[in-house]
Request: fold
Amino acid sequence: MPPAPASPQAWPRPPAWQRGGHRQTIAAALWAARSPEPLPPWQRQRWFTPDDDFIDADLRVPPHPQGAVVLFHGLEGSSCSHYAQALAWVAWRRGWAVIVPHFRGCSGEPNRAARAYHSGDHAEVDWMLARAAALTAGLPLWAVGVSLGGNALLRWLQEQGERARQRLRAAAAVSAPLDLVAAGAAIDRGLNRWLYARHFLRTMRDKAAEMARRHPQRLEVQRAVRARTLRAFDDAFTAPLHGFAGVDDYWRRASSRPQMDRIALPTLVLNARNDPFVPAASLPQPHEVGPWVRLWQPLQGGHVGFAEPRHVGDVRGQVWGLWQHVLDWLQAAAALPSGPAAGQAAEVRHG
Reply:
């Protein structure tokens, strides 16, 4: 397995004023530069699903693609998210196509079916990857998941085992909440509740109410629209909508940490140890993962932050450096032999 993408002492080095996980999270999302130059607009495709619904996928394909990467976005994210734009620029520069399939309800148009998305949605990930693989036949294909999308991708890898190699060369999960019980508790308390939970719930409650209007026989939405924590919302809406007995059943079954030893594809799992709502104590250690998993746990970075200054005195920083590291690792991992001898004991890099 390739080593972690950068030495823990060298990366990341955020702008000096960005001390702590909150500043690194918020500054990266709101102020950091996403690409050094403009890119062509996304090209949207609508993929029709077997349950008479649709998935909107945004694509950016260079003239002569050398490979392709599928990005699974985070909670309430999209192809407009800062990490999606930065990854797309890095991929474009190396001649890779980028495909961002939007989870249901995240493309700007309400979906038709009584279904949304959740952190353990490996069945939806499987269908999306099948479509992406058909579009990119003959090209090396990689997958990256961010936050919620990262956990869902890891759950897909766990369910697929060695079959994952039929679709992908390698995968990466960035800032994934591997233990949903710990992450859910963290985001719902203290400052996190006011900075992040309220932000997510603002759109999630509206979507739940809209879905209930279209499917009154399936949904009783009053508890969901009154929810003031993610735990309450998941218990009232996400869990029952997707067949879970409640929030505890959902968070337990959807968490990827307990099954990290089932992954049989080269996989990078990157989590900053100062992530505001993925507690460092909830992150796995080397003995908990299988030989195909490389853990990278730098001290800095926040939640999908990892901004670095472009030059001396730069206070905004840039966020494409993260994806240069990650895509370099994916490309190196794709060159590994496919047999089990290619794996080795996992290690973790701390910053």
About this structure: The radius of gyration is 19 Å. The chain has ten helices and nine strands. Residues 339-351 have pLDDT under 50 and may be disordered.
